[in-house]
Amino acid sequence: MKDSIVFIAPNSHINALAQSAVSQLNLNIPVIEAYDHNAIEALRRYPSCHIVISRGGTANYIKGIKGITVVDLTASFFDIQKSLNELIAKGCKKIAVVSQDNVIGPTPADFSINDIEVELHPCSNAEEIMNTVNTCIRNGTDGIVGCVVAVETARQHAVEVAPVEVDFYSVKKGILQALELERNLDNQERTIDRLESLLNNIEEGIIIFDAGNKPILYNGYASRIMRPEPLDKWYEVLEDEIQSTTEAARVISLNQNKVLIRVIPLVHDSLEDKVVILQDSSAIEESVKTIKLSSYEKGLYARHNFKDIIYSCPSMEDTVSLAKRFANSDSTIMIFGETGAGKEGFAQSIHNYSPRAKKPFVSVNCASLPQGLVASELFGYVEGAFTGARRNGKKGLFEMAQGGTIFLDEITEIPLEVQSQFLRVIQEREIMRIGDDKIIPLDIRIICATNKEILSLCEEGRFRYDLYYRLNVLSLIIPPLRERGDDIILMFKSFVAGFCKKKIDDIYLDDEVKDILLGYSWPGNVRELRNVAEALSFYGSDIKKQNVERILYRKTGTISTVHHSSDSIFRDDLTLKELERYYYKYMIARHSNSEVAKLAGVARSTLWRKIKELEIED
């Protein structure tokens, strides 16, 4: 759409930068030099505009216009530092940085540069800026860095001033963000057009009831499941299930058919809609195929051995030694450790060190088992056990591990209603397939893992005490990476060498790099360390301090107030897919899959597809 984006430059400096950036990008975006109320008047000449790029108070004024989205031009630390250096060179000893909070950030701060005191004062409007400048000068400030209002106010007191000016790259980044926003807004309309087509082709019945219990959106699949009930009776037919406090999917009888139903509350504008998802028996088998199980992806074998675990610290030496002793026993093991600490690696190593090494190793991520199908996946079922069951039945995961080891990761995610059945399997070492009357004896080793405080879950009624005590026979605690000292350096060099296809001795780290790696908290543990090593391997075998900092702060979303600007995270050449990949890698390094799905607001099946699509190591 013509003139859908307009650049409002509040001063001649930004105007010149914007003109240059627009020309370089070969765009036809109008650039207007206007300030505050004048900017609003200038926008009247562009009735098609719905995105404005601007800065500071002018940006805040424009935000009040209905239908306009504003892209703020923010100042990087280097922009501010440049102005600070100018005043320091003039002999200023106490400097205040005063500007709009959408330029310098919303958080006040103070710090020192050698013997120079610096205070950061974000303000919300011009009046606050003037009052803040006057107060600072009364308190002994001899230099003001800030916006036009701050600088003009300070000049009345004859103190040194330096304006905060954005650079070319900040302006260019703002334009690119506006273009991306434009594409997103255009896509929204197309997305709405596709929604009805999507709903009518999805293999589930979808009904959305509004706060008045009227079906405001539904697809053809739902109509077929609800037939012959009239539309105005749908809520009445499903009312008991919709009002149920049970969030889990459950099977109900509907018009002489078995239907899997799930109800999801949808809260918006203080109102609550209800999304009802219906799946008839013929679709259950298809749902089973989408289950994400580690054993299906990796095969029924363990790839890792104790020799693959890199360590030198005493705590890890004790942990490995204890794990080796555990390997010679058939007792159940509970592995405790933070996300990314290497729990599955230990489980595989224990299996390969045990007499069961040549037998199956079945790895199960309990968080990826969909509610309503957990029992059938763990214990199996026979033909005819339920409508839609596989013709010849199906082995459960416990049965698939016969003679070997089953590893149950994120064990706390098993639903309470299945925990009692699981307890019997552990006690009796036997299972009965769903729909069968035959007992199948099991010869298996059970290893479980968790990154949560199970006793706390027991106290909350979310995990059975008796199951916990049955599982926690042998306890193995994996120390977090931050407590392993020089192991961090040893592992980092080993990972980089592997990615660079070189020897460990060819990898060079100076003392500054080592200090950074040892001083970092590594919330994602070994998994995060490996990801950082992979990213740094692209810079070669000589690891530089600036590259390490860039990768670490990009991954954590933290910006060093001394060395990094916002450009260390967002670069002009990054695609949305790359940003999405960074996001999911960051989250998976720090949380379980179920937690990531919840925080990202997606279904676990969607998260699984994202991991595969973006080629992220889970």
UniProtKB/TrEMBL annotation:
The lineage of its organism: Bacteria, Pseudomonadati, Pseudomonadota, Gammaproteobacteria, Aeromonadales. It comes from the Bacteria. This is Transcriptional regulator containing PAS, AAA-type ATPase, and DNA-binding Fis domains. GO terms for biological process: regulation of DNA-templated transcription. CDD domains: AAA. PANTHER family: C4-DICARBOXYLATE TRANSPORT TRANSCRIPTIONAL REGULATORY PROTEIN DCTD, TRANSCRIPTIONAL REGULATORY PROTEIN. Keywords: ATP-binding, Coiled coil, DNA-binding, Nucleotide-binding, Transcription, Transcription regulation. GO terms for molecular function: ATP binding; DNA binding; phosphorelay response regulator activity. Residues 178-205 form a coiled coil. The keyword DNA-binding applies. InterPro entries: AAA+_ATPase, AAA_lid_NorR, Homeodomain-like_sf, P-loop_NTPase, Sig_transdc_resp-reg_PrpR_N, Sigma_54_int, Sigma_54_int_dom_ATP-bd_1, Sigma_54_int_dom_ATP-bd_2. Residues 309-538 form the Sigma-54 factor interaction domain.
